[in-house]
Amino acid sequence: MNSPVVRAIKALFFIGPLLFGVAFLSPLVAQSMVALAITPPFGLEPLVFGLIIGTGLGVTAQIRGRWI
Amino acid sequence: MSDRDLSRLSPAELMRLEREIARKHMGGFPYLAVAWAFGNLALWLSLWPLVISGILPLWLGFIIACANIALCYLPSHEAQHDIIARPGDRLRWLNEAVGHLSLVPLVLPYRVARLTHLEHHKHTNNPDLDPDYSVTAPGPLSAIWGSIQNRQPRAKGGLKSYGATLVRLGREDVILDAVIYDIVFYAILFGAAWSGYAMEAAFLWWLPRHFALTYIQYYLSWAPHHPGTEMGRYRNTRSFRAILGNIGSLGMQYHVIHHLHPRIPLYRHPEVYWEMKPVLEARGARVDEL
Fold first, then answer.
1. What is the model's pLDDT at position B1?
2. Is the dihedral of CA B96, B101, B102, B104 positive or negative?
């Protein structure tokens, strides 16, 4: 149960919150802003703003071990 | 049948009576469970093209998806107890198909659900052996909050405690099912999100699934076993009056019947309960709320 594949999967799950923040929350924030016609601050593109928020939330959840 | 008559009966006679009533309600083909399984899955799948093509608004799709995913566990639950067809029966494949397919929106592998659920029946309310014991909570709000907390990254309870049960059963192979389901689920979410469908993925699957897991754990795990302190056959489960009624509570008001006779189909529980209630009272079952 400790093959390279298993280790890779364990590593993937270990960074799950960070991955989720970047890969799901970022585009979700960006697309929600566009749908709601909300302009990102500082002239940022929606996706850049989404990446900042999504990555921030992911890093926080990764460190805290919880989203809420 | 009156309470007075039953008070004179011995435990063996009460058991015979209980089994006679239960036997009357077993068997037959549960059309409802099969239609429910495939109809519910088809409806949930149809939400995707309907919402993406703009025919159905996302908010309405979200509400329907919440209902779909909250409803998807019960047909599989019937299959877990071989209610649709037993091993060796001609329609066994249908039992297994319902078991597997109806759980897809919940991202819960059938083999994981089945093995852990049967352990829940064997060890109901045992803090060390009941895989669902982590939902125990002093009240409704703490049960809901506990369900949400059990899904946090470093939590150990809820669905996350199922792995320990599978290891104890020597079924580590089934953990692979859960790993594959999780990887595929998140790959679909991420793929949809980066293809421009993040909101659809969030409101048709990710959020409704969280809603459904909370709802299911509240009504199927917490409410019927609350306070989760007793382990006897007639004491580990109860009947209760749900604010949302029997349908709103996913048929759980009469869950005591299910624990006593798991092969009785869900839709027959109310009828069995009222017929069996005097026997259950004579047995000291927790049936005073309904």
1. 54
2. positive
